[in-house]
Amino acid sequence: MRARVVVTLKAGVLDPQGKAIEGALSGLGFSGVDGVRQGKVFDLVTRHTDPTKAKAEIGAMCERLLANTVIESYTIEIMG
Amino acid sequence: MRARVVVTLKAGVLDPQGKAIEGALSGLGFSGVDGVRQGKVFDLVTRHTDPTKAKAEIGAMCERLLANTVIESYTIEIMG
User: Are strands B2-9 and A72-78 parallel, antiparallel or unpaired?
Assistant: First the structure.
């Protein structure tokens, strides 16, 4: 079973990398950009066949390794 | 208008970071993981109000800055 985890900075947490990208886009002539925030995506393959169990285990992975829950939030999407 | 860009390594491109995460998950006792690949996500706010135009401009941003299209592919999702 495949799953996608998206880890993004929580609102209010400064994102200097996103700001740098915004500046670079502006420098390239893309003037219509009002904000950029960068996050991470993890595409996992798990041996679980039950989506509920897969999601629970991946949630535990996020809590322990994939996300820093002090400043980041995560979403888990089971892709079948 | 908000949009999400997901940049992932193309199939066949080695992902040492993903491998390291897979090893770390295994070390933490998550034994059911068969593969991990890491990518990037960009959450953009654009001033375009037409989804088609927004998508076209963001596609150009991906080609020029956000993705290395030799080894990465990207998807653009307009989130309204």
Answer: unpaired
